[in-house]
């Protein structure tokens, strides 16, 4: 994985290779691109039950965070949505200003030992998209959100593109142990969760 992170690490290696090797302008699914964001994901230790000290479950910098980029888009005619990272687009649901995207894939953890080849990670990203005026009303600081929608214009298409400049929410990775129940898999039968708070500034 190019990012060398667990979170948002569920994308096929082939997609990463394409993203690295292709220098043309990216094309995103749907007919409406809402923006590309650079996210900071910071470990929420109070809600994390996985061993965040293990590189198999969280690879963090000294501040307990990591960075990634992602693009929100949707097809307004079909009512479908997408979240794209490193050239791989996964489904996303849009409800008002909220976006949710869940993806599950095989993600073997070396520290679990043998017999864990079919272990999976289910990753859920849930964010609220804020317009420029809403972002300014919270000083572009996701920690100032109180759970409600801040004052300001509702994100919407404009003649200069989609008016959204900040994304705030959570990224949750649930480790699902081997379905085979192999005794040699040291992580069976445990399920654990790694939770991050995410803040994304629009870069394009």
Instruction: Give the number of DSSP strands.
Output: 10
Low-confidence stretches: 1-6, 10-22
The tally of helices reads: 2
Shape: globular
- Helical coverage, percent range: under 10%
What radius of gyration results from the CA coordinates? 18 Å
Q: What is the percentage of strand-forming residues?
A: 35-45%
Mean pLDDT across every amino acid position: 84
* Biggest sheet strand line-up: 1-2-3-4-5-6-9-10
Taking the sheet with the most strands, its summary is: 8 strands, antiparallel, barrel
The CA-CA distance between the termini, in Å, is 24 Å
Q: What is the total domain count?
A: 1
Q: Which structural class do the helices and strands define?
A: mainly beta
The string of secondary-structure elements, in order, is HEEEEEEHEEEE
Keywords: Signal
Signal peptide: 1-19
Protein name: Lipoprotein
Structure overview:
An eight-stranded antiparallel barrel has the order 1-2-3-4-5-6-9-10. It is 7% helix and 41% strand. The chain has 204 residues and is mostly beta strands. It has two helices and ten strands. Mean pLDDT is 84; it is low at 1-6 and 10-22. A hairpin with a 2-residue loop joins β4 and β5 (98-106). The longest helix is centred in the first third of the chain and has 9 residues, at 13-21. It has one domain (32-202).
Please supply descriptive tags for the structure shown above.
204 residues, mainly beta, two-stranded antiparallel ribbon, 7% helix, globular, disordered N terminus, signal
């Amino acid at each position: 994985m190019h990012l060398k992170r667990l979170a948002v690490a569920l994308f096929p290696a082939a997609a990463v290779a394409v993203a690295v090797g292709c220098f043309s302008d990216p094309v995103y699914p749907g007919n409406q691109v809402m923006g590309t964001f650079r996210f900071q994901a910071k470990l929420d230790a109070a809600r994390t039950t996985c061993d965040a000290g293990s590189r198999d479950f969280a690879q963090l910098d000294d501040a307990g965070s990591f960075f990634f980029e992602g693009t929100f888009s949707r097809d307004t005619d079909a009512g479908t949505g997408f979240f794209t990272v490193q050239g791989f687009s996964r489904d996303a649901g849009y409800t008002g200003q909220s976006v949710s995207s869940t993806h599950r894939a095989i993600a073997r953890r070396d520290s679990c030992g043998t017999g864990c080849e079919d272990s999976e990670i289910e990753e859920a990203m849930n964010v609220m998209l804020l317009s420029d005026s809403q972002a300014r009303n919270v000083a572009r600081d996701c920690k100032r959100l109180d759970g409600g929608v801040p004052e300001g214009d509702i994100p919407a298409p404009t003649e200069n593109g989609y008016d959204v400049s900040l994304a705030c929410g959570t990224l949750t990775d649930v480790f699902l142990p081997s379905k085979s129940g192999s005794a040699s898999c040291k992580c069976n039968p445990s399920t654990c969760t790694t939770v991050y708070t995410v803040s994304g500034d629009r870069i394009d």
